[in-house]
Amino acid sequence: MLWSPARSALRAVPLLTPGQLVSAVPGMYSLTKKRRLSSTLSAAYGEHAWQLVPQSYSLPAELQQWRAWLDEQAAAGADPGPWMLKTAQHLGKGLVLLPGEAAHTAAQQPRLPSAKPFVLAQRYVSNPLLINGCKFGIRLWLLVTGVDPFTCYLHRQGLVLFSTDRYDLDSLSDDEGAAARGHITNYAQNVNGNVWSLDMLKQHLGAAAYKQLWGQLVSSAAHVACAALGDVRQEHRRAAVPPNATFELLGLDYLVDECMHPWLLEVNGTPSLAVEHGEAPVEQLIRSTKSAMVQDMVSILNCQQRFLARYGRQQPGQKLPPQTARRLPASLGSDDEALQRTRVEAELKHRGGFLPLMAHYPVAKYGADSSSSSSSSSSLPVGGLGAVGQQSEAAAAADEPE
Asked: From CA 38, how far away is CA 211, in angstroms rounded?
């Protein structure tokens, strides 16, 4: 098993043989690359995509479409509101927040050689839900464990990350022209800031409000994962990836507005598992939350049993008999439905805090019978689950917050 950042793990994919596992799912870049996320969702769901993510335009390719949208707003006498310009950088770097027209102008201007180019313009959610005057974001973890059938799980714990400065819509930028910190919830830009668990958020919001929010988060995560399925299966076929050889842990970053609607801002391909904070109790909260999630991930991957056919008969330093070695690839790399059913059943048994998303996939609305012609939406039916799908529904119902 190779567990490393997705970029390096992908380099190992062409070398995979049955019985090996890497922490990257080819094709998932359709979600993790900033300029690809919105286009992937738009291709899968049309206008409904803008209920999952704020309206976005890839730069510079969609500058004209953005211009047309701004003109429509002006003609209707509507305020386009602020827009966030994003570079391909991580850790909350390279963010610029400007009013609509000023943002469009800035996106076209040459940047200093030391500055990264803008790759995305995203409509700013200017009515965030505030707690004690501060904006917050929610980090959730999505685990993709298999491609056919497509199996994804959302961990029921996460982190609530607060901005260190109070929210002020009249102050968009700092003295250096970057987005003011009151508008950014990324922990790297708010080191030693306030951090809550989801249980603390539930206590603050109340059980009923949190249950409604959690249901929307689960539905959103399922939609987002399924939107990538066309690219994922295409890349797996192109690279001839053996079945059950890839998994990927993704970080989903959400913002909640004052109407309790969650907006997906980014999907991180290599979510940070670092534990650091200046206050010991907060550091312990971060450690316990991330550790529990990682332990559940190791459990659901079931590595000890997953490769038992290969390694259970092999002592350290010994080679398997040639006849046995020749038979193993067929059993380890088979995509036989019965074997895949066994895999999913084992995942459901060992999932810990991971909620199965299979029962929440938008197959009925966006499946093969959908009017959409995109390859992603035509690939949404996950197939092959059968009775396992019913078990997934039962498991999902059992995880509903009280």
From this structure: 27
H or E element in which residue 197 lies:
strand 195-197
Preceding peptide of 149 cis, ω within 30°: yes
DSSP 69-130: HHHHHHHTT----EEEEEES-STT-S-EEEEHHHHHHHHHS---TTSPPEEEEEE---SB-E
pTM over 0.85, yes/no: yes
Which residues touch 195 (CB under 8 Å, ≥6 apart)? 159, 160, 161, 162, 187, 277, 282, 285, 286
Return the SS3 of 397: helix
**pLDDT number for residue 342:** 82
Is the model more confident about 245 or about 321? 245
Place of tokens 């980014």: 266
Only one residue has tokens 């067929």, namely 330
> How far is 153 from 401, CA to CA, in rounded Å?
16
**232 vs 320, which has greater pLDDT?**
232
Neighbours of 111 (CB within 10 A): 13
Q: Could you give the CA distance from residue 275 to residue 287 in angstroms, rounded to a whole number?
A: 6
pLDDT tens digits for range 170-193: 999 887 878 888 999 988 788 888
Q: What is the mean pLDDT of residues 244-262?
A: 96
Residue 90 has pLDDT above 90, yes or no: no
pLDDT tens figures, 183-222: 999 887 888 889 999 999 999 999 999 999 999 999 999 9
What is the side-by-side strand order in the sheet with 96-99?
56-58, 118-123, 82-87, 96-99
Q: How far is CA 222 from the centre of its chain?
A: 10
β partners of residue 98: 83
> Which tokens is 391 given?
């078990």
CA distance 396 to 402: 13
pLDDT reported for residue 304: 67
Q: What percent helix, strand, coil does the chain show, rounded to 5?
A: 45, 20, 40
On the question of a cis peptide bond just before residue 271, with omega within 30 degrees of 0, the verdict is: no
C-alpha to C-alpha distance for 282 and 280, rounded to whole angstroms: 6
Half-sphere exposure of 206 (CA within 13 A, CB side): 3
